[in-house]
Amino acid sequence: MMLKSTTRHVHIYTAIVANNELVPSDDKLTLDIDPDNEFNWSEDALKAVYAEFDRLVDAAAGEDLTDYNLRRIGSDLEHFVRQLLQQGAISYNLKSRALNYSMGLPRVEAEESAG
Amino acid sequence: MVLNSPTANNKVSLIPGEKIANPSAPPTVTHGLSENVILTTVDDLYNWCRLSSLFPLLYGTACCFIEFAALIGSRFDFDRFGLLPRASPRQADLLITAGTVTMKMAPALVRLYEQMPDPKYVIAMGACTITGGMFSSDSPSAVRGVDKLIPVDVYIPGCPPRPEAIIDAIIKLRKKVATESMQDRAYTLQTHRFYERSHDLKVVPPILTGRYLQTGAHSAPPKVLMESMGMPISEAIAELAPEDKEI
Predict the structure, then answer these.
(1) What is this structure's pTM?
(2) Nearest by CB to B203, which of A11, A37, A65?
(3) pLDDT of residue B115
């Protein structure tokens, strides 16, 4: 049975992609980043997220492959995406399907409070 | 409000020492359909057809659905807006998330959303689906707002909202549908950024089998809990207790 952790920006499946379909697989994980395009992604930001995913999956080696552990990885990855957004590495896509600002409204931040 | 993108940073007049957190920007890639055809009149006709026949999915996870069910009934009668409840996501184009969404329900909700044909709309109904509501402060399982899972077009506040509030939200959604254009259709499509890798996690049999009440852990509360509640502890349980650690 395919396990998954799907939140808005991070979809993790225990599956591989073949012919544009997800095929369940026990020894592979597939990550999908922000399919609904809430953010503008740059190559560097995507690579950073993939590297963080690699790090989290390596750190989870040996644990049970369950929904809960996948959700932990997914949740940590969502926090990482939020960090990227706060640093300005990615930005909200103003032409997305629905503008929700789901990770906080844009705002001007003085250096003192940021530090 | 000053909005900027990383590339437009130098144009914005920020005092030194200030920076923009959570920036927003228009997409840099232009999609194929967005700048080549003019379809204004067809748009109006097409939008009018769509907004007059929004088919909501029969989706309800908690008390908000009681109010939604009242809306379906004859007193509030939402058929007059052309809304016909559909029991299959393949036939629905409106998802009203009535009720609390938990992390266990989240993959099912995302799957329902992905099974709906485009163009599709989501109304987040009630406090639980906007922020987590009364579960937002201490629940280990409630999702803090469905906009963390799927894009939301209209939020209805209330706990639960009255049927009139849902009618108001549907009118607002109709206005949104009316202003849409086919030229922007390309922007609403999904983009998959797949990344595949192998892992070293241990494959275990499924843990969510629906038989958790038969596992024995639920026939009597754990000893610690019984003690703190002041329940009498039978001798059998008191003997069992050392082995009960994993429960």
Answers:
(1) 0.81
(2) A65
(3) 92
